[in-house]
Amino acid sequence: MADPRAPKAPDASRRSERSRRAIFDAALALVGEVGYDKLTIEGIASRAGVGKQTIYRWWPSKAAVLLDAFGAVVDEYDHEGLPDTGDLAADLKFVLRATADEFNDAAWQAPYRALAAAGVNDEELSRTFVARLMEPSTRVYVDRLRAAQETGEVAPGVDLRIATEMLLSPFSQRWLMRTGELTHDYVDTLVDLVLHGLRPRG
Amino acid sequence: MADPRAPKAPDASRRSERSRRAIFDAALALVGEVGYDKLTIEGIASRAGVGKQTIYRWWPSKAAVLLDAFGAVVDEYDHEGLPDTGDLAADLKFVLRATADEFNDAAWQAPYRALAAAGVNDEELSRTFVARLMEPSTRVYVDRLRAAQETGEVAPGVDLRIATEMLLSPFSQRWLMRTGELTHDYVDTLVDLVLHGLRPRG
Amino acid sequence: MADPRAPKAPDASRRSERSRRAIFDAALALVGEVGYDKLTIEGIASRAGVGKQTIYRWWPSKAAVLLDAFGAVVDEYDHEGLPDTGDLAADLKFVLRATADEFNDAAWQAPYRALAAAGVNDEELSRTFVARLMEPSTRVYVDRLRAAQETGEVAPGVDLRIATEMLLSPFSQRWLMRTGELTHDYVDTLVDLVLHGLRPRG
Amino acid sequence: MADPRAPKAPDASRRSERSRRAIFDAALALVGEVGYDKLTIEGIASRAGVGKQTIYRWWPSKAAVLLDAFGAVVDEYDHEGLPDTGDLAADLKFVLRATADEFNDAAWQAPYRALAAAGVNDEELSRTFVARLMEPSTRVYVDRLRAAQETGEVAPGVDLRIATEMLLSPFSQRWLMRTGELTHDYVDTLVDLVLHGLRPRG
DNA sequence: ACATAAACGAGACGGTACGTCAGGTCTTTCA
DNA sequence: TGAAAGACCTGACGTACCGTCTCGTTTATGT
To answer: What percent of chain A has pLDDT over 70?
Structure first.
C-alpha cells in the first residue's frame, strides 16, 4: 500500500546501471580534483554525461552520491577478520600499519575526508557514514580483542568498545586534523601503550 | 619590507572595533540558528548591519570569520592548568567531566563542529584551528601528565603526546562522529583504562 | 557551420514566451519610473518575476533589453508609407505634427531617450538602434520625397537622404537636447523652410 | 546671507588649484581611455592623486566634472564670429568644414559624446551643456545669417534660429548617431540645400 | 513485435549567494 | 582647516549552482 502523498517512486528495476557507474566514477574523480566544497551536482552530471535529474532522482544530496560511490569501492575489498597468530600486539600492528598506508594514499583521502567532514555537520549522514564505512572496520578489532580476552591476554571486564576507541580514535584524529604523521613507529607505540592498559593487572 | 605583489593591505589601525564585534556576534548566532552550510557571508553582513566588503576586507572565508569569532569567545576563558591534587585519575576525571558537559552544550556544538568539519577539508584552516583552539586545551593535559611522570605515577619513557591522544581522541571522536554519548561514566572508564596503560610496569 | 569558439548557444526553441513578455513589460515600466541610469537588471528581473540569469541568457546588456522591449512596442504599429494627397507640404505637416505629439508623450520619452543616449556611447548599439527604430521611420519620408520629385514638386538631383535629414534632424535634436518645444507651429515653419529649399529653381 | 540648511559651504577661496587641474586632466584622459560608462569618480581621484572627497566637495556628479573639464578646454579657444567675406555659402562651408574636422578628431569625440549622452537623460545637465558648449557656437551662425539677411542674401522674415538648426542639426545628428560621415562634400551639399531654402523667393 | 510508460540527456527556469566594484559618507592624519 | 587617504554601508554587477520543470529520445518490458 503505497503512500499516495509520496511525490514519486522511481522504478529501481528500470534504473540505468551505466549511468550509476558513470556518476560514481565522475564523483570520485572530481572530489579528488577539486575537493568537496567545489564538487557540484552539475559538475558530476556533466562529467558523467548524465542529466541532472538522473542524479536528483536517486540521491538526495551530493554527500549521498559520494557516500554510495565510495561505499561501492570499499565493498570490493574483502572484510575478513584480523589475523590471529596468538600474538595480539603483532596482529594489531600488522593491520594498523597497512591501514596507515591506506590513509596516506591520496586516492582515499579526498572522498573519506569529505564524507567525514560532511557527517560532522549532518547527523543523518554521519549515522550512515559510521554504519556503512566505519563500523565494519571497527568490528573486526572488537572481535580480535574479544578473542584475546578469552585467552587471557586482555583483562576480563574491559569494555572492548572503549578499548577499540583508544586504539583507533587517536589514529583517525591524527589523520583528520593533521596533528601528526601516521608512521609505522607511531602505530607501534600506540599499540604497545594501549595493550599495556588492557593487560590483566597484578 | 612589504611584498609589492600584495593586492592591498587594509590599514588595521583604522579598523572599526564595533563592526568586528557585530560580525562575531552575528556569525555565532547564525551558525547556531541555521547551521554551517546555510551560514552565508551575506547573512552575517546583514545581521551585523555591516557591508559585505567589510567582511571580505578582513577575512578570506566564512570559516575564517567563524574561527576568529569562536576564538574570541574561547579566549575569554582562563586557561589555567589542570588541578593537581596528587590524585591523577581524580584530576583527569574532574576536568574531562566538565569538558563533556561543555561539549553537550548546544551553544558550543555548532561553531566547534563547523570548524572541525571545515578543517578536515582545508589544510590551512585545520592548522589554525588546531593551533588556536585545540592545542591550548591539549597542552594542559600533557603538562599534568608530565607532573605525574615526575612523581612516578606515570611510567618514565611514555610518550606523553601519544598518551594524551589516547585520552582525548576517543572523547572527541565520539562527539564528532556521534558514535556514543559523552557521559560521566564514559569519561571515568576511559580515564581508568588509559591510566592503567601508563602505570609503571611491575 | 557553428562557431566552435562560441561559449554557449541557448536553445531558442525552448524559450519561455511568458518570461520574455514579462521582461519587456518590466523594463518599459521601470525605465519610465526611475529613468535609465537607475534601471538595473536586478530590478527588471525582480519586477518581472524572473531569474537574473534568464535575462543574461538572452541579452548582453540592459540597453539591449530595452531596445528589444521598445522595438516590440514599435513593431505593433503599422508602418504604412506617408499619405500622398498630392500636396507635399500638407502631407509632411500632417505626419510630423502627429510625430511631435508622440514625442511629447511621456511613455515614449523615457525608453527612446535612454536608447538614443546609450547609442551615443556605444557604436554597436547605435547601429542597431538606428536600423531598428530610426531607419524605418526615415525611409517613408525619403519615399514620399521621391514621389514628389517625380511629380516635379521637388527639384531633380536633390539628395533625398540629406533633404530628409534637414527635415527630421532639427526636429529630433530639439527634442533630445531640449533646445525648444515641438509645437505644431514649429513643425509647419520647418516644413515650409525645408520645402522652399527643395523646390525647383528658376 | 547663507542658507543655514545648506549642509556645508566649502570655502572656494581656499580651493586647491593644483587639485582642480589634476582632476580635469585625469577626467579627460580617462574618458578617452575607457569611455564614459567606465569612467569612475574613484578612477579620476586615483589618477589625479586626490581624495574622493575633494571631488565630491566641488562637483555633484561625474558628468559635472567632465563638463567643467571639457568646458575649460573649450574656453581656451577664441570664439570670434564667423568670417564675413560677403559670400555666405563660402563662409559657412569654410567654418563647417573645419568643424567637421574637429568632430572627426578622437580627442574631442569622447568627452563631447559623453556629455551629449548624459544630457539626453538629465534635463539639468542638458541645459548646462547646451548653454555652456552648444549655444556659443550656434550663436555665431545666427549672427552671420542675420548679417546676410540685412544684405538681402537671406529672405526677410525667415526664423534664423530654425534656419541655423537646419544647418547644424543634420550635422550633429549624423555624428551622434553615426548615420553618416562628416565629409567636406557632405558639408557643401548641406549648405547649398539649406541656403537655397533661405533665399528670397520669386 | 510492438505499444507504452518510465528513465534518460538536455537544459531553461526562478532563485540564492558568490566575490567584486563603485557610489557617496564619514573619520583620521597630515601639512 | 583643506586635503590625502581610506574604512565604512550600500547596492548592483555578472557568474555559478541550486533543485524543479519540461522537452524529445531511448530502452525494456509485458501483453
So the answer is: 95
